[in-house]
Write a structure and sequence with these properties.
The protein has about 300 residues and is α/β, with parallel strands linked by helices. About 35% of the residues lie in helices and about 15% in strands. Strands 3-2-1-4-5-6-9 form a 7-stranded parallel sheet, sandwiched between helices.
């Protein structure tokens, strides 16, 4: 298939694009700007087209593609300083995501996967409490509401995602690796209480590819792999860096994962076990997170 991966210059979309290309598909990555990667990065070998899914367009950019993977939804990293948060999520996610899926459908794309967030399914009570979570749910619902006999669409909703693409710097993960490697000595070594489910890009990309090919039309899949405390998460980075001592557990905001990104609150957990039948259908492997954290450290060493 000829597949457009929107958000393909980032970690999640880029890894999915590379995986789809490895399966023999003709893959084009799209974003507002080309990927900022080192020379020789596998991402630099994929065709690129500039697309801002929130901008007006004539949809010629969508012509000729059989399928689309949408990995461009906005999260806390995309919130402009001083912006009304609720208004931003409304425009970028609630309205913008379904509108672009509608454009894809009209352009003749027949299959699409929306990569969304785990929060609405893993912790549905947060939908009414947090505008970001509400926006993610409505974006997912709006995209899937367009499903029809001629437009097959489903959503793969992921927890915290970790991974590495050679030549691509992912600021947060690069910082976590640098922290473990002792390159940020001004930040004390500790972990805060709480934890969350994690998944590797390797597992997520397999799930996305299989959802695109054989997912149930209109379905929202909650994927996930390992439930890790933040003490275990940061501890694995330090073990990969050669430091095996357990990290002190301190109940204070952590500069590497500040409270503003912890929607369960500091000390809260979002642990779950993904549905076994759905995991089998999507065909992704489990117990891949700790291996991936070691890969990240080696990638930034």
């Amino acid at each position: 298939m000829k597949i457009l991966v929107l958000g393909g210059t980032g970690l999640i979309g880029g890894h999915a694009a590379l995986h789809l290309a490895s399966l023999g598909h003709q893959v084009t990555i799209a974003a507002r700007k080309p990927a900022t990667v080192a020379e020789g990065s596998p991402l630099s070998k994929l065709p690129f087209v500039a697309i801002d899914y929130l901008a007006e367009g004539d949809d010629r950019e969508l012509a000729g593609f059989d399928a689309m993977v949408f990995a461009a939804g906005n999260d806390i990293r995309h919130l402009p300083p001083g912006t009304d948060e609720s208004a931003h999520w409304q425009r970028a996610n609630v309205e913008g995501v379904p509108r672009y899926f509608e454009r894809a459908r009209k352009a003749g794309i027949r299959r699409a996967v929306h990569i969304g967030s785990f929060y609405p399914q893993a912790r549905p009570e947060l939908v009414e409490q947090i505008s970001y979570v509400r926006g993610r749910k409505l974006a997912c619902d709006g995209a899937r509401a367009l499903a029809s006999d001629r437009f097959h669409v489903c959503s793969v909703n992921a927890p915290f995602v970790v991974g590495h693409i050679p030549g691509l710097v992912v600021p947060a993960l690069a910082a976590h690796a640098a922290y473990a490697l002792g390159r940020i000595p001004q930040v004390p070594v500790f972990a805060m209480p709480g934890g969350v489910n994690f998944i590797s890009t390797t597992s997520l990309s397999v799930a996305v590819a299989n959802a695109l090919l054989r997912g149930d039309n209109g379905k929202a899949y909650l994927v996930g792999d390992e439930n890790l405390s933040f003490q275990d998460y940061f501890g694995e980075f330090f073990r990969a860096a050669g430091h095996g001592e357990p990290l002190p557990l301190i109940d204070q905001e952590h500069p590497m994962l500040p409270d503003m990104v912890l929607y369960a609150g500091r000390g809260g957990t979002i642990y779950y076990e993904p549905d076994a039948a759905e995991t089998k259908l999507l065909g992704y492997r489990r117990n891949d997170v700790k291996r991936t954290l070691h890969e990240i450290v080696e990638g930034y060493r």
